Amino acid sequence: MAWIATFGMAYLFFSIAFIFILWQLWFIQTSIKTKGLVIDLDRQVKARSNDQFAPIIEFETEKKEKIKLNTEVYNYPADFKKGEEITIFYQENNPKNAKIEHFRHLWFWSLVWFGIGLFFLMVGFLSPNARRF
Questions:
Q1: Which single residue of 40, 62, 74, 79 could bond 54 by disulfide (Cβ 3.0 to 4.6 Å)?
Q2: CA 119 – CA 44 distance, rounded (Å)
Q3: How far apart are CA 91 and CA 84, in angstroms?
Q4: Has residue 133 been placed in a domain?
């Protein structure tokens, strides 16, 4: 009976990953693509490890509105350098909800949920009580 719950959990997490993937694909398809400039790096101080950095980006919309984007994806080392030009996706009706065209910034959460689902799937298959099909 436990293997049913394990496969159910795998299905749940794969479904969540699939929803995240569909959401990102929809966002990309309905967005306007433009260039932005990394104007600074926000530093997150860590007491027991290396400090992490998130880019602060400025870009201009098609309506000539300047937008400052504070991303929340912190990494060490930093993904981008100050002064670097990068590609941005933004929604015309909400340009402050923009995303960087970068694998980690677009697909990180999809991979996390997929990985958790994969873990439960493997536990289900490797369980001694799992029924063999």
A1: 74
A2: 30
A3: 22
A4: no
How many domains does the structure of the chain reveal?
1
Where in the sequence is the domain holding 22, given as residue range(s)? 12-126
Q: Is residue 103 domain-resident?
A: yes
Paired with 34 in beta bridges are: 88
* 80: DSSP letter: S
Distances (CA, A) of 109 to 25, 26, 29, 53, 115: 13, 15, 19, 18, 10
Question: CB of 103 within 8 A of CB of 80?
Answer: no
pLDDT attached to residue 108: 86
Q: Is 7 inside any structural domain?
A: no
- C-alpha 78, offset from chain centre: 15
Mean pLDDT by 10 residues, the chain (133 residues): 79 93 94 94 85 92 91 85 94 90 86 92 75 55
29: burial class by Cβ within 10 Å (0-12, 13-18, 19+)?
exposed
H/E stretch holding 53? strand 52-60
Q: Is residue 131 part of a domain?
A: no
